[in-house]
Design brief:
By secondary structure, the chain is mainly alpha-helical. Among the domains are: about 130 residues, Up-down Bundle (Butyryl-CoA Dehydrogenase, subunit A, domain 3); about 210 residues, Neurolysin, domain 3 (Orthogonal Bundle), CATH 1.10.1370.20. Helices cover about 60% and strands about 5% of the residues. Strands 1-5-6-4 form a 4-stranded mixed beta sheet, with helices on one face. Helix 14 runs parallel beside helix 25, helix 17 packs across helix 23 and helix 20 packs antiparallel against helix 22.
Length: about 650
C-alpha cells in the first residue's frame, strides 16, 4: 500500500530547534484544553474522522472487506503481463487496494495521535499494518515482472492500452530501478521484515511523548512547574533569563538520563537503513534514499556546504537578539525568548483565519475556496488535549479531504504554523484533484515548499497590517526564527545525520558519548560558539535524542530545500502576475507525475545549483538588517547608549 502521506511539520522540530514553535501562556480568549480529556473538547475544535469512517465498526467492516480483496491477489501473479489489458487490470486492482488502505491507515493513525494513551487505537494501527505487510508480500512479483517485460514492450503496452496512461511515470521509475531491484523471493522476505522495522521510531516517540517521567522545576517567583512538553514550550520563552536557564537545564538533563536508550534506538535504526540500502545494491543510504527521486547526492552535500559557508547572517541575528534582550552573554536557551520589545497580541482562531485568507489572496479564488472549506468543514484539530501527540502535521488522503493536526495557543507563531499546514493541505487538495491515484502523492522533496510559501505570504500580510515599529520588529523576529529553524538548524541536523550514517557504514557503533560529542561539534560550528557568538553549553549535547525525523532517512535536508524554493517562488508570485501564479499552482497540481527537480524547474527554480540557497540566505540577511534599523529607532536602543 502507498505509505502514509502525513507530512511531519517543521513545527515538530522547533523545540530547542526540535519541537513546535514557542507557545506563551494562554490568553483568556484562547481556550486551554491541554489537560482536558479529548472526549470533553468541543467537537468544533476537532477534525471529523467520521468523514473517513462513521465509526470503528465501519472501519472494521472495511478492514475485513479489504482483506478479502487482498486474498484475491494470490491468483493474479500468473500471466498478468501477457497482454496490455491484463497489465492494466492488475495495476488498477492494486491501486484500488492501496487507495482503500490509505483511508484505513489514516483513520487509525489520526485517532491514535489525538490520544496516545488509548491502547485500542494503537491496536488498530497494528491491525492495519499487518494488512499492509500482506499486500507488500503478495505484490512482490510486480517489479520483477515489469523488469522482465522490458522497456520496449512496456512502451508498446502504453501505446496500446489507454488505461495504462496513469501508470506511465511509475513504470518508468521501475525500469530505471533495474540495477537495484530484488527477485520476488528476496522482495517477499524484505516485505515480511518491514513488519517490525518501525519499532525504534515508535519506542523513541513513546519515550519522548508519554513514558519519560517529567522533571519539576521551581521558577524565580516560587511557582512549581512539571515540565511536560506543553509547559516546556510555554516557559522556555520566559522573560526571566534565570527561568529560561532552569527550564532548559531540567528538561535536557532529564532526557540525558535515557541517552543510552536513545543511542541504542538510533544505532539500530541507522543499521537498518544501511542494511536496506545494501540489499538494494546501493553503496550507501544517501544514494539509496535520493535515487528514487533522481536527486544527486551532491544536492544534499551542496546544501551543507553552502549553508556552512554562509553562517555570518545567522550569527548577526544572534547578536541582535542578545542586544534586544539586554544580555551580557548569549546562551542557546535565550534563542526562543522574544527579543522584540512589545506585548504580543493573541490571535483567536477566527482572527487567524481572516489573516490567512487575506495573505493568500494573490493565489486566486480556487485557492481561497480550498482554505474556506478547511475552516468550515472541520479539517483541523486545533487545540492541545490530554494525551494528544505534540507538534503538528497535515495528511492528504486521496478521495477525501486533507486533515491537519495543530496544538494552537494563539501566538503569531501558531498562526504561522496553521498557514504552514494549510499549505500542505492545499498541495494535497490540488494534486489529488488533478492527478490519478498513481501519481497524486507529491514527493517528499517538494513537501515543504507549499507550506513555507504560505508562511512567506503570511508575513507580507502581517507586516502590511502592522504599522507600529515594535509590531513589525516582532513579526520579523518570528519569521526569521522560523528561517533560522529551517535553513540553519535543519542543515545542522542534516550534517549530523550524514555523520551518523557514515559512521555506521564504516562498521562503527553509535554510542551516547559519540552522539553527544558529534552533536556538540556541529552545534558549536553552526551556533557560533567557536566564534564567541554564543556561550558553550554541554547541556545541549543530548538534543539529538528528541528529533524524530532521524528515523526517516535523509528527510530533514528537504526542509531546507523546501524553504529555499518557496522563498524564490513567493518572490516571483508577489512581484509578478497571473503567469507566476499559474506556474505555482501548476506545481501544486503536478503531484508526483515527474521527478521533483523537473517539477521545480518547470516552476522556475533550479535546486541543483547553490544559487537559490544563497538567495534565501541573502533574504535572511536583509531581514536582519531591517530588524536592526527598526530596533535602532526605538527608545530601548537609545537607552543602551
Amino acid at each position: 500500500m502507498r505509505p502514509s502521506s502525513s507530512i511531519p511539520c517543521l513545527a515538530a522540530l522547533l523545540c530547542a530547534g526540535i519541537l513546535p514553535a514557542a507557545q506563551a501562556a494562554a490568553d483568556p480568549v484562547i481556550p486551554d484544553y491541554s489537560q482536558t480529556e479529548r472526549s470533553q473538547v468541543p467537537d468544533e475544535f476537532k477534525f471529523r474522522v467520521e468523514d473517513l469512517f462513521i465509526n470503528e465498526a465501519a472501519w472494521r467492516a472495511e478492514l475485513v472487506a479489504l482483506a478479502k480483496l487482498i486474498a484475491a491477489l494470490d491468483g493474479m501473479a500468473k500471466d498478468w503481463t501477457a497482454t496490455p489489458g491484463q497489465t492494466a487490470d492488475l495495476l488498477e486492482f492494486i491501486s484500488t487496494i492501496n487507495e482503500r488502505g490509505e483511508r484505513l491507515e489514516n483513520y487509525a493513525r489520526l485517532l491514535s495521535d489525538m490520544d496516545l494513551s488509548n491502547p485500542e487505537f494503537a491496536r488498530m494501527q497494528t491491525e492495519y499494518q499487518n494488512l499492509a505487510v500482506d499486500v507488500g508480500a503478495k505484490t512482490t512479483f510486480v517489479v520483477p515482472d515489469i523488469l522482465l517485460l522490458g522497456r520496449e514492450k512496456v512502451d508498446a503496452y502504453l501505446k496500446a492500452e489507454p488505461r495504462l496512461a496513469p501508470y506511465r511515470f511509475p513504470l518508468e521509475k521501475i525500469l530505471r530501478n533495474k540495477d537495484h531491484s530484488l527477485s520476488q523471493a528476496e522482495a517477499s522476505v524484505v516485505a515480511q521484515v518491514r513488519l517490525f522495522t518501525d519499532t525504534a521510531p515508535k519506542v523513541s516517540g513513546l519515550l519522548n511523548d508519554v513514558d519519560i517521567p517529567r522533571a519539576e522545576v521551581t521558577l524565580a517567583d516560587g511557582t512549581k512547574v512539571l515540565l511536560n512538553q506543553h509547559n516546556f514550550l510555554k516557559y522556555r520563552v520566559s522573560k526571566n533569563p534565570a527561568d529560561r536557564r532552569v527550564v532548559a537545564d531540567a528538561y535536557w538533563n532529564n532526557l540525558r538520563k535515557y541517552d543510552n536508550t536513545f543511542a541504542a534506538l538510533l544505532d539500530g535504526e541507522m543499521k537498518k537503513q544501511t542494511a536496506f540500502a545494501r540489499i538494494l545494491k546501493f553503496p550507501n543510504c544517501l544514494d539509496a534514499t535520493l535515487f528514487e527521486n533522481d536527486i544527486s547526492p551532491e544536492v544534499y552535500r551542496n546544501v551543507i556546504k553552502t549553508v556552512r559557508a554562509n553562517l555570518a547572517p545567522l550569527h548577526r541575528f544572534f547578536k541582535l537578539k542578545q542586544r534586544m534582550l539586554g544580555l551580557a552573554e548569549f546562551n542557546y536557551y535565550d534563542i526562543y525568548a522574544p527579543g522584540a520589545p512589545s506585548v504580543e497580541k493573541p490571535y483567536t482562531y477566527q482572527e487567524s483565519q481572516q489573516l490567512i485568507l487575506a495573505a493568500m489572496a494573490p493565489l486566486g479564488g480556487e485557492y481561497a475556496r480550498g482554505l474556506q472549506r478547511a475552516f468550515a468543514e472541520r479539517w483541523i484539530d486545533l487545540y492541545p488535549n490530554k494525551g494528544k501527540q505534540s507538534g503538528g502535521y497535515s495528511t492528504g488522503i486521496y478521495g477525501a479531504h486533507p486533515y491537519i493536526k495543530m496544538n494552537y495557543s494563539g501566538r503569531y507563531d501558531d498562526v504561522s504554523v496553521l498557514a504552514h499546514e494549510l499549505g500542505h493541505a492545499m498541495h494535497a487538495l490540488f494534486s489529488n484533484a488533478a492527478q490519478p491515484f498513481a501519481t497524486a502523492e507529491y514527493p517528499i522533496f517538494l513537501a515543504e515548499i507549499a507550506s513555507t510559501f504560505n508562511e512567506n505570504l503570511l508575513l507580507n500580510e502581517a507586516l502590511k497590517s502592522g504599522t507600529d515599529d515594535r509590531e513589525k520588529l516582532r513579526l520579523l523576529e518570528s519569521y526569521l526564527e522560523r528561517m533560522r529553524g529551517t535553513i540553519y538548524a535543519q542543515t545542522m541536523y542534516a550534517d549530523f545525520e550524514l555523520a551518523m550514517h557514515e559512521r555506521v557504514e564504516q562498521g562503527l557503533p553509535l554510542t551516547a558519548s559519540w552522539l553527544e560529542s558529534t552533536w556538540l561539534e556541529k552545534f558549536n560550528c553552526y551556533m557560533g560558539t567557536d566564534q564567541g557568538v554564543m556561550k558553550k553549553d554541554d547541556t545541549m549535547s543530548v538534543q539529538w535524542a528528541a528529533i524524530p525525523h532521524f528515523f526517516r532517512p535523509y528527510y530533514v535536508f528537504q526542509y531546507v530545500t523546501g524553504m529555499v524554493a518557496s522563498s524564490a517562488l513567493a518572490e516571483a508570485v508577489t512581484q509578478g502576475g497571473e503567469p507566476e501564479v499559474n506556474r505555482y499552482l501548476t506545481m501544486l497540481r503536478a503531484g508526483g507525475s515527474k521527478f521533483p527537480l523537473d517539477i521545480l524547474r518547470d516552476a522556475g527554480v533550479d535546486m541543483s545549483k547553490p544559487g537559490p540557497i544563497e538567495a534565501a540566505i541573502r533574504q535572511f540577511d536583509r531581514l536582519v538588517a531591517e530588524m536592526e534599523t527598526l530596533y535602532t529607532r526605538l527608545p530601548e536602543a537609545a537607552a543602551e547608549k
